[in-house]
């Protein structure tokens, strides 16, 4: 990843009738990074993606892709990227090889070049053994790999992946993650929208969260988790008579109301210093504990904190 800018979104807005689907959004995507876009249903993700990929005209603001304005230089902008939705417009009655050949020719490749590029992509996406099968016989994972292969025929520098692993089983999803990481190693920039927060956490260098059309937060997954999520401390108190005393100490030091389940105390906290002080006070009070577990906040926690109940 370098500091060159692949995408620059500047004060972008889109209004439909009297409703603002995207409201004054600004961010940049660096070359060579995986940039994740997250948001609840109806948050404006699809509208934002359609504007950046030149499919929808903005009401206000500008977008440049590798320096090309999407309105003034739309053809040049489009030539730099590929888009993979949940399903590409393939012919279900044709084979994977035939579909790749057709899309290659549509992209201006000669017959010889189309055949060479098709063979490259079939090998890269482990579809060689299924090259002559009808698409109707493909599993969900095979179909999704073909969709991605089609979007990469022209070797675009920027790839938009719109929920690329929706509906896939965990094993196939993991294979797709490896493919996406491989694309970045080869020099691609990835713009990823996903409904799986774990996917964004595992793949994205940075994540933008939007809700009600507004950009709520942007940063690395770790930054979002630690800025907006809370860690959880769980421990068992060995002496039943000390449980409530231990809970009071932790409530004071961690500034959070503990939950007591049998002889286990569970309490949220924002930073590690609070937890250390709380445990130190338990030791000073001669309260013996066991089964200490500290669980870091997840991206799910951060997402919920950022979006639930926001107006």
UniProtKB/TrEMBL annotation:
Family matches, as SUPFAM superfamilies: P-loop containing nucleoside triphosphate hydrolases
Ranges that cross the membrane: none
Superkingdom, taxonomy of origin: Bacteria
InterPro entries assigned: AAA+_ATPase, ABC_transporter-like_ATP-bd, ABC_transporter-like_CS, ABC_transporter_ATP-binding, DrrA, DrrA1/2-like_C, P-loop_NTPase
Pfam assignment, any one: ABC_tran
Keyword terms, alphabetized: ATP-binding, Cell membrane, Membrane, Nucleotide-binding, Translocase, Transport
PROSITE patterns: ABC_TRANSPORTER_1, ABC_TRANSPORTER_2
Main localization, broad class: membrane
GO MF annotation terms: ATP binding; ATP hydrolysis activity
Keyword Membrane: yes
SMART domains in UniProt: AAA
Domain ABC transporter: 7-237
Annotated membrane topology: Peripheral membrane protein
A Gene Ontology term for the protein's cellular component: plasma membrane
Protein name per Swiss-Prot or TrEMBL: ABC transporter ATP-binding protein
